[in-house]
Design brief:
Structural class: alpha/beta
Order of helices and strands: EEEHEHEHEHEHEHHH
Low-confidence stretches: 1-16
Strand content: 5-15%
Strand order of the largest sheet: 5-4-1-6-7-8
Shape: globular
Largest sheet: 6 strands, parallel
Helix content: 25-40%
Radius of gyration: 18 Å
Distance between the termini: 50 Å
């Protein structure tokens, strides 16, 4: 599987040759390991849906952004078992990768909110145990444009998004929703409140 050792911006011109999307993964473990929230069974189901609903019907390029704790050998084995050819596994920071993608598939984790806030159209997977967080996290995560809480609904959500991407209509994103939680100027407001402690 290819990876790259050059800055990500060096491959940005490839974007317009085909649709490009990012799969932002959680830390996926083998089925035998029950300590983790993301089972390989769920992950394989997600990959199979992506193959059937997106890759078999459209000219797309996938970028895989693994969880920092992910065993890359295991990840590549999962991808290979489903038949992904030459997926690009990227190690760059999310803010570097996001300008090059047309849409994203995210799993509920803190990293998922980068593309949502950036305005990238996302399908946000919040299946079952992924969603057992506090009220604020649920309020933020379950009122998105394309949230999937049952993997049986994932294929139809993929089909709908791909149809939207192939029309000339604007694609809905979650910027306005995320501004309720990360408003414009939020960092400045926080810094103003804590400046006395920093001096």
């Amino acid at each position: 599987f290819p990876s790259h050792d050059k800055p990500f911006f060096s491959i940005l011109p490839l974007k317009r040759k085909k649709l490009r999307y990012m799969l932002l993964t959680r830390d996926v473990m083998d089925l035998a390991d029950t300590r983790r929230k993301s089972s390989s069974e769920d992950f394989m189901s997600i990959l199979n849906t992506l193959q059937q609903e997106i890759h078999s019907q459209y000219d797309v390029e996938i970028l895989v952004k693994p969880h920092p704790k992910q065993n890359i050998i295991n990840l590549k084995r999962f991808l290979g078992n489903v038949g992904f050819e030459n997926p690009l596994v990227v190690a760059d920071a999310l803010y570097v990768v996001l300008p090059s993608v047309d849409f994203a598939i995210t799993m509920q984790s803190s990293g998922a909110y980068y593309p949502l806030t950036y305005g990238v159209p996302c399908i946000h997977l919040a299946k079952g145990e992924y969603g057992q967080r506090d009220y604020l996290f649920n309020e933020m995560g379950y009122n998105l444009q394309r949230v999937v809480t049952d993997l049986d609904d994932f294929p139809n959500t993929c089909r709908t998004l791909m149809q939207e991407l192939h029309t000339s209509q604007p694609i809905a994103n979650d910027v306005e929703h995320m501004r309720k939680f990360y408003p414009d100027g939020a960092i400045e407001l926080i810094m103003d409140q804590i400046k006395d402690y920093l001096e």
